[in-house]
Design brief:
mainly alpha; two-stranded antiparallel ribbon; 986 residues; 8 strands; 39 helices
Length: 986
């Protein structure tokens, strides 16, 4: 197959000039190799086979320009290529505070200057135990008072202010990495010249090292209470120009994309559209036309199940003329068992799920982590309310009344076992404490730190981990807040009485298996007794031999000392056996050392070793239990948490820190929790914290969740930094919509599926992804959603879609992960790239073993994340290794052969080239090709068949496809699997 692709696609230029189905990865390779790409017509990429969202190019354009721009990735979206971030994307943002002051606006210390000084200066002049130079910059009056060098601030005169002198000359801050920009320095100078005004009277006392949280920081958008806003009144049609049945029939370059129709919106108008259109109309934009039904069903299937629709699914949807056809399709997909696999994978990202411990290169296996993965999938399939879902994961053991000592007894109760399994969320952080780390104490503390990071990024959208060593540089998070949150989880991870991973799991065995195991153990113990008796017989023989070496007058004393219980021996007997004649003290544990000194030693131990082997053989027949990885508390030892000076666990501060939430939110609702709830067998800290997060009063939890759900449907979040809702994160593009969705989500019982139905029935979700000049000029990134963003399939979805189309996908749910190992080339593949004859290893990728140091190669090149400790948002890149994997990877080559065999089987014996081509396209993309596409496909298949007929490749052992047309069909199937239309969703 490799040879066919190389000869035909890379050498037969006339044919390439005709085909419209060139995959993106092939053009990428041409661009990289400089192989005369400019001579190929652009219609290879601009055909119907290319993504519908690709930029419309003039008919006479060549591929060179396209290939040079991200090597022909479906470049309709800057978000698909993180190497070229948009100006307002997180990648393009400066890591430092950027002042945004309107011309002529009044400057105030709290709003404009303090964030700069907090970022660059507070770590030396405000947060340390000892202030550098005695200078405190946390308040204006403290700057005026100055330090050892005198006053630092002379209000009204930048030239007379020592502070400005130091920052303008670059002397302060001393580190280049902390230097202020010229714009920031100019802003400080302007503020000083204006008299260094403050917004309000300053507090009398901060205390050394205290952190003042200002009203401006407390009023940050993400810290305000969630309130349901009024739905905007839209007086224009929500859709742009459309053809029959509301679907796009026009050239997107000539479409006006305007919502200027005088018709009022219908009463049943989706509220999401009202919020989005309100902003679009401010910019003179409207929605794009509705996407065609084939695009919509593919979009819905991949979004909700992560699998492509079958040709039968597409046929049925196209034939359904009911006005409710789209809603019925969504409901079917939401009820699919594959839904939980798709959306479970999303949550496993932020939970940091892995089948290995990480931390160091040993990366020990986690053979029992998969039970938590299955819990997540089942919970999402059942549409478990997310407030319950969160509470169970943070405190399922406390709900079940389980402690470290009593958890095993609860495994017989399925409901309580489920609650315990849910706590696997708290066991996902890297944990090297069971793999002999170089510094065990550091490894222990690292587990807790990474757990806090996972909890805070997944549920709070805040970078709380940045406050472990010092006050947060950008957000109002004092160092104490990190340790308040650490104290919530400290009873699970008590560093003084640490339990290694092997001691934090439960065995699961049925009553029948337990009975069988007990019977087998009883049989084995009988053999054990024979083994010990035989061994002690040999011990007696060796003792008598060694006794002969003792002087005759001391032998009786030696025998008496030896036969006396060790705990009852006199000092003289102890000295005799340990110092004077230790060889007489023969024990079972040291018998092997004595036998090595005797010629008949092997003969003497033969019988008892045979009995030992027999007992082991009997025990090997026991049913092997599964294990579940859980989090529990040892309530007999409740740890006390202290702030670590500069994050050093060897330097705890004196004062204890109570468990609690963020200080900046304490004015909304008290968030310090009891250290030990007397009504529970556990401390109750995590249960109290989980209920606080899901109370409906927390300003972050629901916002963070619905923003992530939105991102997974549109490829971009309303807040495009889903793990950072703080000062350095992006502001929401539609803050009112974010709050509307968050409040609706909570009012609707925290259920995800109804929210998804609302999102997917909006016209925003159903619109076309085609671009046009007007929209690009006003909103190039489509942050306002005047079109649907184009998205590349995620790594697991690429693999799953290939398996589905080739007909080899094993849809068996749940259970132990499919193992990953190195193939002959040293690349990590499922089953080492050599699955069994029955292909039972070809399960969905969510069930494939996920080791931190041994990721599946295909998934890694398509941006599958490594859990360090978790993944807040996936990236989507376009790199050479993706092209090479689709062209030469063993997995794709093998699945292309299976795909070809499926085409042959469905087409029937004696099928001609046209039928084979038509069947392959239909299986790959769900619908039949157009007449022009069918002609191109048939021509390709005919020419490739001729190539193999006159230049056959070497026969491969076990390969069913041997005829020229069969081999040619396999190459065609590979092309279809690597094309943009397969790898991207419009």
């Amino acid at each position: 197959m490799r040879r066919g692709l190389t000869l035909n696609w890379l050498r037969k230029t006339p044919f390439m000039a005709r085909t419209p189905i060139t995959p993106w990865w092939l053009v990428l390779c041409f661009a990289l190799a400089g192989a005369g790409v400019g001579s190929f017509p652009a219609r290879m990429l601009a055909s119907e086979a290319a993504p519908k969202a690709a930029p419309e190019a003039p008919n006479n354009a060549n591929v060179t320009a396209i290939a040079s721009a991200s090597a022909s990735a479906p470049a309709s979206d800057p978000s698909t290529n993180p190497s070229t971030p948009a100006a307002n994307s997180p990648a393009a943002a400066s890591p430092a505070y950027t002042p945004n002051v309107a011309p002529g606006a009044a400057l105030h210390y709290e709003k404009d200057i303090r964030p700069l000084l907090k970022t660059h200066c507070f770590h030396c002049h405000g947060e340390e135990r000892e202030l550098k130079g005695g200078l405190d910059l946390r308040l204006r009056r403290l700057m005026v008072a100055g330090g050892k060098s005198g006053p630092a601030l002379a209000p009204g005169s930048r030239d007379g202010s020592h502070l400005f002198e130091l920052i303008s000359t670059g002397e302060m801050p001393p580190e280049d990495s902390q230097a202020l920009t010229p714009e920031e320095i100019a802003l400080i100078g302007k503020w000083i010249d204006a008299g260094a005004p403050t917004a309000r009277p300053e507090p009398e006392d901060l205390g050394n090292g205290g952190l003042l949280i200002t009203e401006e920081e407390r009023s940050h958008w993400s810290f305000r209470p969630i309130q349901r806003p009024a739905i905007p009144i839209i007086t224009a049609s929500p859709a742009g120009p459309s053809g029959e049945k509301g679907e796009s029939k026009e050239n997107p370059d000539t479409a006006t994309n305007s919502a200027a129709s005088p018709a009022a919106a219908p009463a049943s108008f989706n509220p999401i559209d009202a919020f989005l259109l309100a902003k679009l109309q401010e910019k003179g934009l409207g929605y794009s036309p509705r996407a065609d039904k084939i695009t919509l069903i593919r979009r819905a299937y991949f979004d909700l199940t992560g699998l492509p629709p079958s040709p039968e699914d597409v046929r049925d949807f196209l034939a359904d003329e009911s006005p409710m056809a789209w809603e019925r399709l969504i409901d079917r997909l939401l009820a699919s068992p594959h839904y939980g696999e798709r959306w479970g994978r999303h949550w496993l990202d932020v939970a940091g799920y892995a089948d290995s411990e990480g931390y160091n290169d040993k990366d020990a296996d986690r053979p029992d982590a998969w039970a938590y993965r299955d819990y997540v999938i089942r919970a999402l399939n059942a549409d478990m309310p997310w407030d319950r879902f969160i509470v169970e994961q943070l405190a399922g053991d406390e709900l079940a009344g389980a402690t470290a000592a009593g958890a095993q007894a609860l495994t017989k109760d399925p409901a309580k076992l489920d609650l315990l399994t849910a706590t696997g969320f708290l066991r996902m952080a890297p944990d090297g404490t069971g793999s002999s780390p170089a510094d065990l104490e550091d490894a222990k503390n690292q587990v807790i730190t990474e757990t806090v990071k996972i909890v805070s990024s997944s549920l709070l959208g805040m970078t709380i981990g940045c406050a472990e060593c010092h006050y947060h540089r950008f957000d109002p998070i004092p160092q104490e807040d990190f340790y308040r949150l650490r104290a919530v989880f400290a009873p699970v991870y008590d560093t003084e009485f640490w339990r290694k991973p092997s001691a934090r799991r439960l065995s699961l065995i049925s009553d029948a298996d337990a009975k069988t195991s007990a019977e087998i153990e009883a049989e084995a113990k009988k053999v054990d007794a024979e083994y010990i008796a035989e061994m002690m017989r040999v011990v007696g023989i060796i003792f008598e031999r060694e006794l002969e070496r003792v002087p005759e007058d001391k032998r009786e004393f030696a025998r008496t000392a030896y036969e006396t219980d060790a705990k009852e021996r006199t000092p003289e007997q102890v000295k005799f056996l340990t110092e004077e004649y230790p060889a007489v003290n023969v024990q079972r544990t040291t018998l092997h050392l004595f036998l090595a000194n005797y010629e008949d030693g092997d003969e003497l131990k033969k019988d008892y070793e045979a009995l030992l082997k027999k007992a082991q053989g009997i025990r090997a027949k026991k049913p092997q239990p599964d294990y579940v990885r859980i989090a529990t508390e040892d309530t007999g030892k409740i740890p006390v948490t202290h702030v670590f000076y500069r994050g050093d666990h060897t330097s705890p501060e004196e004062a204890a820190v109570p468990p609690g939430g963020l200080t900046v939110l304490s004015q909304l609702r008290p968030n310090t929790f009891p250290e030990n709830d007397p009504t529970l067998p556990t401390t109750g800290r995590r249960l109290a914290y989980a209920r606080y997060l899901t109370s409906g009063h927390h300003p972050l939890t629901a916002r963070v969740l619905v923003n992530r759900f939105w991102l997974l449907h549109f490829g971009k979040g309303l807040v495009n930094t889903p793990g950072d809702f703080g000062a350095q994160g992006e502001r929401p593009s539609h803050p009112e919509l974010l709050d509307y969705l968050a409040s609706s989500f909570m009012d609707g019982g925290w259920r995800l599926k109804p929210l998804q139905r609302l999102i997917m029935t909006s016209q925003a979700y159903q619109q076309s992804s085609r671009r046009h000049d007007r929209g690009d000029a006003i909103d190039a990134d489509a942050r306002l959603l005047w079109r649907m963003p184009v998205r590349r399939l995620e790594a697991e979805t690429v693999r799953d879609a290939v398996l589905a189309v080739s007909g080899t996908l094993n849809d068996q749910p749940y259970g132990a992960p499919v193992p990953v190992s190195a193939n002959d080339d040293g690349l990590f593949e499922v089953a080492g790239g050599k699955p069994s004859a029955d292909l039972h290893e070809l399960r969905r990728s969510v069930y494939v073993e996920m080791k931190r140091t041994e990721p599946v190669s295909l998934l890694e090149v398509f941006d599958a994340p490594r859990m360090e400790p978790n993944c807040e948002r996936r990236q989507s890149s376009t790199v050479t290794t993706q092209a090479l994997s689709m062209m030469n990877g063993d997995f794709v080559l093998e699945q292309s052969r299976h795909f070809a065999q499926r085409v042959l089987d469905e087409s029937g014996a004696g099928a001609g080239a046209a039928l084979l081509a038509r069947t392959a396209w239909r299986l790959a993309y769900g619908a039949p090709p157009s007449a022009d596409q069918e002609v191109e496909l048939t021509l390709y298949l005919a020419e490739q068949t001729q190539l193999y007929k006159y230049s056959p490749p070497p026969a491969e052992k076990g390969q069913k496809l041997q005829e020229p047309q069969q081999l040619a069909l396999a190459t065609l199937c590979q092309v279809l699997l690597g094309a943009n239309q397969f790898l991207y969703v419009d």
